[in-house]
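Hi support team,

I've been running sequence recovery on a batch of backbones for a student project. Most finish fine, but this one hangs at about 90% for roughly twenty minutes before it completes. I'm not sure whether the input is malformed or the queue is just slow. I've pasted the structure tokens below so you can try to reproduce it. Let me know if you need the job ID as well.

Thanks,
M.K.
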């Protein structure tokens, strides 16, 4: 009797292990961890469109369902058989696509495939319209109202708001667009290229066109300008979440970048100082908002990473600060050179010291002459 129960338990565990192994093989679209979400839940939630199953069916996102159908129709034309071709192409990939998600999807087979086709074709047509302006209908609210396009750019890069990339590739291949030579990746990069500057990927203070290219040389820390606006926090948080979940031993460049800035920004005074030097362009208003943003973000980062991208810069900055002469110079600047009166007092004191020294020298020379 006891042996029979043990066998039942073993079978149960084996079945569970099969599920774990199956999910580990393909899972790459995760849910945001509760510790990340509770700091700023809004940063991970879509504003106007649900892509994929995690946010599908939410009432406040239902307004874009009709636009998905409109984009599907404009992409495939009037030929109904093209819809059937897309469905037939995606159907064999359903099981593989379901395994990409970190939790079971409570949709029937037909509902899941329909979602993949509708969402995938919407994304493809959106990317094509953004690339080829001739495809844009003058009545299309997505391109007529700038805030809708901005929200779509934001929503399509959210960590939870994703389709498996192989679904998009299969649809793009199936639709066969002879007049469009651009690959899917090129279309996506083109679509997000104007989001990156708004999110901070632009260069003003350094020659390299790389927001992460921070330099420290001859006592000077050179940082490319970061433009901070309403979407910046959501943008950075979702990229950090992606690296935290999907990263390996490689450098997690965005996480390290946020960690670096978090070390520089501890209060609103730090933000004001960085803004004064052109390192931060503040489009959100109060400096306190930015300082709180970085302070909250670095709380959720486990690190720094083993291959911390800015480790060498940290080391050189610390070495520079540990030198006694540099500490004295910094103290002098902080305590006496932060105002015109402080500078005047130093000059006056130096002048008096020089006069005293000269008087002493003359006294010694006078004694020797006698």
């Amino acid at each position: 009797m006891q042996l029979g129960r043990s066998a039942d338990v073993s079978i149960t565990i084996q079945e569970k292990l099969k599920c774990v192994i199956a999910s580990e093989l393909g899972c790459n679209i995760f849910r945001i961890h509760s510790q990340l979400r509770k700091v700023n839940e809004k940063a991970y939630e879509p504003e106007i469109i649900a892509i994929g199953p995690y946010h599908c069916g939410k009432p406040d996102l239902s307004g874009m369902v009709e636009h998905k159908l409109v984009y599907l129709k404009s992409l495939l034309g009037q030929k109904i058989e093209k819809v059937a071709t897309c469905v037939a192409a995606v159907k064999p990939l359903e099981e593989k696509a379901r395994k990409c998600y970190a939790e079971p999807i409570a949709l029937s087979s037909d509902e899941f495939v329909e979602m993949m086709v509708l969402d995938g074709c919407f994304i493809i047509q959106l990317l094509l319209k953004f690339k080829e302006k001739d495809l844009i209908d003058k009545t299309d609210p997505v391109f007529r109202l700038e805030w809708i396009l901005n929200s779509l750019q934001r929503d399509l890069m959210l960590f939870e708001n994703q389709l498996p990339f192989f679904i998009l590739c299969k649809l793009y291949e199936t639709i066969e667009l002879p007049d469009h030579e651009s690959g899917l990746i090129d279309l996506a990069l083109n679509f997000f290229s104007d989001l990156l500057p708004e999110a901070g990927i632009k260069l003003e203070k350094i020659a390299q066109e790389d927001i992460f290219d921070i330099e420290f040389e001859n006592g000077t820390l050179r940082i490319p300008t970061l433009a901070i606006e309403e979407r910046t926090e959501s943008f950075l948080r979702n990229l950090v979440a992606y690296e935290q979940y999907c990263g390996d031993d490689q450098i997690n460049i965005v996480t390290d970048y946020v960690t670096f800035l978090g070390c520089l920004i501890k209060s609103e005074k730090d933000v004001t100082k960085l803004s004064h030097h052109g390192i931060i362009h503040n489009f959100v208003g109060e400096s306190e908002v930015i300082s709180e943003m970085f302070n909250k973000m670095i709380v959720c980062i486990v690190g720094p990473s083993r291959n911390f991208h800015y480790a060498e810069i940290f080391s050189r900055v610390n070495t520079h600060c540990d030198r006694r002469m540099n500490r004295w110079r910094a103290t002098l600047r902080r305590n006496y050179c932060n105002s015109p009166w402080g500078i005047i007092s130093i000059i006056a004191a130096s002048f008096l010291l020089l006069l005293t020294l000269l008087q002493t020298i003359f006294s010694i020379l006078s004694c020797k002459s006698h």
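--
Follow-up from support: It reproduced on our side and the slowdown came from queue contention, not your input. The chain has three domains: 30-193, 199-322, 336-369. No action needed from you.
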